[in-house]
Amino acid sequence: MSDLSVRDLVVKYGDFLAVDNVSFTVEAGAFVSLLGPSGCGKTTTLRCIAGLETATTGHISIGTDRVVCPGHETPPERRGVNMVFQSYAVWPHMSVFDNVAYGLRTRNTPSAEIATRVTEVLRLVGLDGYGARYGTELSGGQQQRVAVARAVITEPRLLLFDEPLSNLDAGLRERMRFELLALQRRLGRTSVYVTHDQAEAMVMSDRIILMHQGRIVQEGSPRSLYERPANRFAAAFIGNANLLEATVTASHGDGRHTVTLPGGLTLEGHVATPGWVPSGAVLVCIRPENVEPAPDGIPATVTRVSYLGPVQTVELQAGAVTLRADLPSRHVVATGTALNIRIDASAVVLVPET
Amino acid sequence: MTRALLPWLLIPLLTVLILVPVGFMFLGAFMSGALADPEAHLTLSKVAAVYTTLPFLRTLGSTLVIAFLVAIAATLGGVTMAWLTSRTDLPARPIMETCIIAPLFLSPFVGAIAWLVLGSPRAGLLNVIARAWFGTTGAVVNVATPSGIVLIMALYYLPYAYLTVAAALRNMDPSMEEAACVNGSGILGTALKVTLPVVRPALISAFFFIFVLACGTFAIPAVLDRASQVRFLAVDVFQASATYPIDYGTAAAIGTLLFWISVMGIAAYRFASRAARRFVTVTARGYRIRLVRLRWLRWPMAGLVGVYVVLSIVLPYLALVWSAFARAGGTIFAPVWTLANARGVLTSAEVAGATVNTLEVGLITPTLCVGLGLLIAYAVRRLRVPASNAIDYITMFSIAVPGIVFGTGVFWTYVLTPAYGTIAVLVLAFVAAYVPFAYRISDTALLQIDRALEEASLLCGAGNGRTLLRITLPLARPALLSAWIMVFIFAVREISAAVLLTSSDNVVLSVLSFNYLDFGDVPKAAVVGLLQTALLAAGVIAGRYVFRVKLSSQV
């Protein structure tokens, strides 16, 4: 059963289409990310689900309740969802305890029950003993935990996250990814997570919905998005990619094709987008880690080497084609030397432009 | 739900509060007599007389000239002091700043009474002293002249210019000045060529703001011009409706004239302050302000501020104290102190009544104003209710209506209702006049509250009402308190509308003091003035030290 269903959602600001006909569903207990660059409509979509933004047209259902449909908008406070904000939005005039207890007090929960549940949730997020502190006395990471505690205590049907980690410094951000995910797994709450950070989305999500210019570009598991990008944008936005313009010169059935790159280099590749039959000009996507040294491979020249520790990023010139390769650091590669390479046919993905 | 209903509540409310009185004033201007008069009919004669005949045009001329000179003098004074306190190494700057804005929290009307005691041509204390010490003859100081009126008004309006310009100076990136210095300009050169042009829009907007205030001023010319024969529109409105032969139609017609001047002045002010916003050069980096070294001018410049404080606060209050507590027989050199006068006034039934009335008005007005102001700001800024623009315009409209004009309009509106002559009618007039201040301060406060704080509350299951009460209100509390204190001060010292709407039942302290003055009883007026000042001071001190309100930046 799906816990959230968004159908034909459109949000217009004047002439600007912030969200352009977006539809997706989130199954119960899943952790789904809306991923995309800033301005792609992911946050607007999330705010429509929360009820903080008014949909121009479209339908949204949470569980069996239709919260948005033509002529009807359930106000946010009656949707049974809760959200963790980018700015944390910890109320500065209340203690940590009062912040977390707020949602329960709104529901007129008996105060004895409030005390036990707040204590329990604070322990869950690792803020044991912080109840009497004020929001302004906490670090960013701790405020983040307060925000999470405040959201989960109301037992929302949907837990929404609006770039919750983007204000934290890099080290803490990585730790919090795992903490948030562990918490979500423990609570089993259906979660929608908005982020512009593809690594974050990859690590945390069961499924990623990739958005661009108000539309959904592709959705699927992190692996399928990385290995089978739907178009140029998807290939470039998720991970690093060599995106080469090529021409289909022969088709072998079963989605396998031979393509010719500028300068006459030919490669075997396959189509990952179901139902798409390429012909003529196509894009070829090769991930840098799939470019391997091979003595009998394609001759190339090393034009630049960037040493990153575990790997080195090597820029290669193979005829008219420039390629980026991530090679293990243990082989020393020098600029200006020759290097033969090979690319496995399974790593050459043919991608439509759009 | 509330979102759709709120405009249906706010627009009629604001219309009745603000637009209807102004509309009735225009109606009154075209009536031959009071609304209660069965003979009254529509006529053009009053308007024609006011807008085209010589005595009124001459009053218009002198009002404009005086207001212009006041605005120039106050702006020049304000900009000098703003530069001194925010850009130089003037000694004791925080105290200086407090002293410069202190007159804002005092009543210009009480100040005018004090200056009458100090500077009337024959019995004025300054003239008496000058005659005794320097053997002068005649008047050294005479406040009952056009220049006297201009100077005293300028004294009390200077803080408005000071605040506007000081804010602009503080927002300016000092590296602009440093660049000028590095490029070889001297102190004065930098101040004139770089600092001044950058704050010019703030200066212009301060000028127009003071010009509009001065045009509508009633208290200072009403107190000082009884001898001087300087005609002033606001005083003419009062005289037409309060002294024999009473002519409400003419009062309303003069009110409309004053209204047009204010509308034009406010338009210019808004234009200038919009330009001023473009010049805001706040930078996020924390910079240390490099102060100009005044060197040997440090103490003389401090003296300049000192002179202002002496003229606007010290001398007037000394004069009031002298007037209130010195027996008639004594002289300034051999005073005979007495409490008889003060005791007599303070124990009288009329003072007790007026104090109660003042307190009632002074407590109800700011409460209603802040409540309404916050509601409007929340509806417009947060809920973005339909017709938000209309609500904003109607609310801000009353900025363009001088107190005396509101008084006239409220008079015409409520004269036939039971509210007339009660405290309620004063509260109606004051709330209408001061709600823009409360609205503006609330609006700024809301802008500074991250929306997510309120959204988090909604998502925790609280509705708009609970969110406003539990989240927005506590977070905006400091700003709302300072708005409350500001409106309290305005309401306690207000005189121009109160004097038009007075009856035996709703006399407030300022009107009582004015009445005493009218009977020539300056000592009694002084006692009431001191009492009123004590109320104002109590409000300011409570705000400053009990509620820790920052008052300076909110006017």
Write a concise synopsis of the structure shown.
The complex is a heterodimer of chains A (354) and B (555). With 354 residues, chain A is an alpha+beta fold.
What can you see in these coordinates?
The complex is a heterodimer of chains A (354) and B (555). Chain A contains eight helices and 20 strands. The two termini of chain A are 32 Å apart. In chain A, 24% of the residues lie in helices and 39% in strands. Chain B is globular, with a radius of gyration of 24 Å. In chain B, 74% of the residues lie in helices and 0% in strands. Chain B starts with a helix and ends in a 9-residue tail after the last helix. The interface between A and B is medium-sized, with 26 and 17 residues.
Jot down its keywords:
heterodimer; A: 354 residues; alpha+beta; Rossmann fold; OB fold (Dihydrolipoamide Acetyltransferase, E2P); six-stranded mixed β-sheet; five-stranded antiparallel β-sheet; 8 helices; 20 strands; globular; B: 555 residues; MetI-like fold; 0% strand
Helix content of chain B: over 70%
**CATH-defined topology of the largest domain in chain B:** MetI-like fold
Evaluate the radius of gyration of chain A.
24 Å
**Number of helical stretches of at least 4 residues of chain A:** 8
Shape of chain A: globular
Query: Helical amount among residues of chain A, as a percent range?
Result: 10-25%
How do the strands of the widest beta sheet of chain A line up side by side? 7-8-9-3-10-11
The pair of chains with the biggest contact is: A-B, 26 and 17 residues
Q: What oligomeric assembly is this protein in?
A: heterodimer
Number of helices of chain B: 23
Structural class of chain A: alpha+beta
Beta fraction of chain A: 35-45%
Q: Could you name the ranges of chain B where pLDDT drops below 50 across 5 or more consecutive residues?
A: 282-286
